[in-house]
Amino acid sequence: MRALVLERCAWAATLVAIAATVRSWYHITRSVEAPLPAIWPVSPPVRPMSSDSLGVLTSRIVDSDPFRLDRKPAAVAYGAAQDTLPNRTAAAPEAPRPPLVLVGIVGPPWRALVDGVPGHDGSIVLRAGQSIAGLRVRNVTASTTTISGVDTTWQLAVKRTWP
Questions:
Q1: pLDDT, tens digit (0-9, with 9 covering 90-100), for 31-72
Q2: What are the structural domain ranges in the chain?
Q3: CA within 13 Å, CB half, 19
Q4: Measured in Å, how far apart are the chain's first and last C-alpha atoms?
Q5: Average pLDDT over the chain, rounded to whole?
Q6: In degrees rounded to 5, what are phi and psi of residue 19?
Q7: In what order do the strands lie in the sheet with 135-140?
Q8: pLDDT in tens, 80-90
């Protein structure tokens, strides 16, 4: 019974608050006209600029190369063909690293289920000491696998273990 009285008092207070809010919104007055902006008047130029002076200023800026530290033009033109440049050896592109993913571990004896091995679709079962596609499996434990490439070593871990 007491909870019912408290609930009714809370509802009454809510209705009074809503009525007071609506009443205050109703009596808010807004100005019809926006105030004038406070902008300072612009003074007229002392002397009009001639097109000749603009040409002189433009040529001075272009001739001084403002975006170079030595303020001189570059020795090689922008976008020059590769055959006109001095002999430079092009760096050989690196072979892309495979996105290896450890899907699971099977065992004992422990064997790794690995996705992303180059030249193979799906998961491959690998054991410690095995080499495939230039990758060597160094170690397989109950939760991790170590795989080495030519210049990289992957320490792979299972993302989620079996419950």
A1: 667 667 677 777 777 777 676 778 888 888 878 777 777 777
A2: 101-157
A3: 6
A4: 51
A5: 81
A6: -65, -40
A7: 131-132, 135-140, 144-148, 153-157
A8: 665 555 555 66
